[in-house]
Amino acid sequence: MATGLTWIQQRLRWPAAPVWRLVYNLYERQLERQLQALPMPRHIGIILDGNRRHARESGLQDPEAIYRLGAAKLDDILAWSVELGLRMVTLWVFSPDNLGRPATEIGDIFGAVETKMRALAADPHIQRRGVHIAAMGRRDLLPPALLEAIGTAEAATRGNDQITVTLAIGYGGREEIADAVRAFLADCAAQGLSTAEASARISPEAIRRHLYLADLPDPDLIIRTSGEIRLSGFMLWQSVHSELYFCDVNWPAMRRIDYLRAIRAFQHRDRRFGV
Predict the structure, then answer these.
(1) pLDDT for the residue 16
(2) Which residue among 68, 170, 195, 210 is least enclosed by CB atoms within 10 Å?
(3) Nearest residue to 184 (alpha-carbon basis) of 173, 174, 195
(4) Alpha-carbon dihedral sign for residues 88, 136, 50, 233
């Protein structure tokens, strides 16, 4: 028995695709109107998950194409974020834990990100939109060609200030905290402080000043795609008061409507910051 929109289409003999697009567009516009009436999150973090799952479900066999598809979704996120007036988006692309994957797969991921960084650095739309590209993570884990591409994108967009898009690559939350403690201790040693004196200076703010991007505000909202319900170490220090949103859609298939729903969910939360 036909149900929902399919039943309506059969009764009225409307073609499926045009009707679905009409309903989708109307709903999307309604969502956007609702969002614009309430405060937007200042900083959104996104855990990009589900590339391989999407490939299996789509019958995509070429490993390189899988990650190119995921990298291309960055263009959509950029466009949607600019349209909504968002100021900061952080995308988690690659974790040190991912180093356990096959070398060819790691190479495909790095290759897709390198290509995307070079494209962004040369894209005039990025300049017109005022997009600033940044990166955080253990750069020593990345190949030289990728490092050069990231550096080029950072340099090309350094003067832009409308929206900051941060790539978390070679990034792990535990690694970031460990590196921050090491940097803090090195700073204390450079000042000639004893162990006891350094210990006395330890505080949350002291550690924060040594995080990868110390000036980056904590994310208000963290979105994870693919249906997995965990942070997996993403921004462990910064996420203590973040609102979390988990959606079932795989990263390459994420739609604007999914992004709007996540932001709407955030706007309807009663944020009490741990109280």
Answers:
(1) 55
(2) 195
(3) 195
(4) negative
- For residue 252, the model assigns a pLDDT of 94
Q: What is the pLDDT of residue 60?
A: 83
Q: Extract the residue ranges of the chain whose pLDDT is less than 70.
A: 1-17, 274-275
**Residues acting as catalytic residues:** 49, 98
Both 119 and 240 in a single domain?
yes
How high is the pLDDT of residue 275? 63
Among candidates 63, 90, 74, which has minimal Cα distance to 231? 90
- Bridge partners of 89, per DSSP, are 44, 165
The pLDDT value given to residue 55 = 87
Domain that includes residue 56, residue range: 39-171+218-266
User: Can you give the pTM of this predicted structure?
Assistant: 0.90
Q: Which CATH number is 136's domain given?
A: 3.40.1180.10
- Quick one: 200 and 101 in the same domain? no
If asked whether residues 95 and 194 sit together in one domain, one would say no
Query: What's the number of domains the chain is made of?
Result: 2
Residues 238 and 195 in one domain: no
Q: For residue 202, is it within any domain?
A: yes
CA 1 to chain centre: 41
Q: Is residue 12 part of a domain?
A: no
Q: What pLDDT does residue 32 have?
A: 93
Distance CA 168, CA 90 (A): 7
Asked whether residue 121 is domain-assigned, the answer is: yes
| Whether residue 135 sits in one domain with residue 77 | yes
